[in-house]
Amino acid sequence: MSAPLVEIDNLNVRFHGPRTVHAVNGVSLRLEAGETLGILGESGSGKSVTLKTLLRLLPENRTEIGGSVRVDGVDILSLDGRALADHRGGVASMIFQDPMLALDPVYNIGEQIAEAVMRHEGCDKAAGWARALDMLTRVRIPSPERRLKAYPHEMSGGMRQRAMIALALACRPKLLLADEPTTALDATVQIQILLLLRELQREFGMGMIFVTHDIGVAVEVSDRVAVMYAGEIVESGSVRDLIRDARHPYTKGLLAANLHGAVKGARLQAIPGAPPALDGVPAACSFAPRCPVKLESCDLARPPVAEPAPGRSVRCVRAG
Amino acid sequence: MSAPTSARTLSPAADASALTAGPLLSINGLTKHFPLKGGLFGQSRGVVRAVDGINFDVAEGETLGIVGESGCGKSTTARLLVDLISPDSGSVILGGRTLGVDLTVRDLRRQVQMVFQDSYASLNPRLTMQDAIAFGPMVNGMARDKAVALARDLLARVGLDPGRFAGRYPHELSGGQRQRVNIARALAFSPKIVVLDEAVSALDKSVEAQVLNLLADLKAELGLTYIFISHDLNVVRYMSDRVMVMYLGQVAEIGPVDALYAAPAHPYSQALLAAMPSMDPDRRTMEAPLAGDPPNPINPPSGCRFHTRCRQADGVCSVTVPVLHALPQKGHLASCHLHIPGSGHTGAAPRRELAP
User: Fold this and answer.
1) CATH number of this structure's domain B21-246
2) What would the pLDDT profile of B204-239 be if each residue is shown by its tens digit?
3) What CATH number is given for A6-100+174-314 in this structure?
4) B206 and A213: CB-CB below 8 Å?
5) Which of A25, B54, B129, B265 has the most C-beta neighbours closer than 10 Å?
6) How would you class B287 by CB atoms within 10 Å of its CB: exposed for 0-12, middle for 13-18, buried for 19 or more?
7) Measured in whole angstroms, how far is the alpha carbon of residue B76 from the centre of its chain?
8) What pTM was estimated for this model as a whole?
């Protein structure tokens, strides 16, 4: 294992418009081949924006991206035209919360998967359809031969999610990007999809970045977890470290707010206030206004990233 | 604020006895089928059996949690409770008085209020927060200055400084703040029951905890009764005294929260609880408790509606509809042949002779 599969260094993303939004502020992360990283955060924390940067899915004309993003040794930010199209779906692939937006409503599932395979691998139609059948079998869609001819609207929610996963993995990408793929699903279907993703990830040996707002989901799929707040990674480490020994006050607050094992009748340790507007580059700790243990210095300068143990990082002055 | 005059005040004695003797709210055989329109002349192509003959009681001062997956009928139940839609059959009895017989919709809605999931869609975008809260009382005859004073008082009560928030419009508030306003508005009539239909589900976790604390405070202060609908089993466990599990328009199981979470009796409740993420990286879920999606409520399975996904299904399950049956723990009921003695299920106990 020489170079990591994903290498993001000091990523900054700004959206220009009536006001400039500083969506991602100095994010650095690594992902080894075959590893699963969960990115945990609330709405507006920059987790989906970070993920979309890896496929360059953000609107070109309004977005300013700084820093460096490399996937499998290739500089993503300089990709263009055909090279970018090769990257999308070939090297890295993405699954979304809403499969109806990812799947084309006027083509059946078989045609959609076969087309992607033919485009990326230059094979003929028969081989494309054979791959489509193979993929539907692998994602455990019952009677896959019949489902090849099905249109997205003819399938149930869980089945569509499986079809989208089949499409994303058809060209054997090295990296799977998952953007809240189970959030809209019922509990009993969600766990099926999480187990399926875990299995396919092992089977294909791919790296996976899984974005979610649900700690429980992150624990089920991730090896490592990065917690994002206001466009920054505030804490990262192995999933065990984070669950058993969270160091950042925000991570601790999130764990308490999950209510897992909360005592009935006892008041919840709620984090007061709301996340900040992302109007400028953070000059201080973004979490300081809501932090129960903040120091004077927290309002003055951005806290440095501390490394309390190998493989762990915490952006908090108290973490040292 | 003055209590709205209603038929209730005409017979205080009957009212008081109803409150002490029976449950505050009683639901009997409530059914709602939505016709599916289609075809050339819009003739009916069948019905969605959204809610199919459910019974439950809610005692004064308790919180009843309702859980289940999409299509199980929990939101339809909520809408039936405040008569946003009318039931096909069955009755809603509040404080001993039956809706449509000796209880008008107007009286029902004064006493049963609702908070919805979408905090933005719930508010008129052209009304300030103060006007949005004052609107209901004014329509019901309260003078404007009194209604506004009430609105400002309620804003303060839900943790929003009236000086800062009274004049704001919905788009100027965050999701958590808007939901606080919706809660304030629901309280404007001093209701007895508040139905919370996924009221915290759209909020971020850190904000959700704040609103849950607020709900707990309000309940203690005002002696409210909650019907708390959510798909989040952790939240329901924290909030509820009793829990009702619904599946495809019917009640699968109902019981005290601790008993039901510790020992769920219905195989569906067991699967639902087992499907919760484990929160322990060393003990991850290794097997999905159920395969496939919930069936379509248009053509629900025969007999027990869960039998198509149930691992313990037996011959009788596809033929006979199980009824809610009392379990040893008081107040704990499940509708599963496995727990009905003599039901014909091979796992069920033999029928006992009725004790004298």
Assistant:
1) 3.40.50.300
2) 888 899 999 999 999 999 999 999 999 999 999 999
3) 3.40.50.300
4) no
5) B129
6) exposed
7) 9
8) 0.89
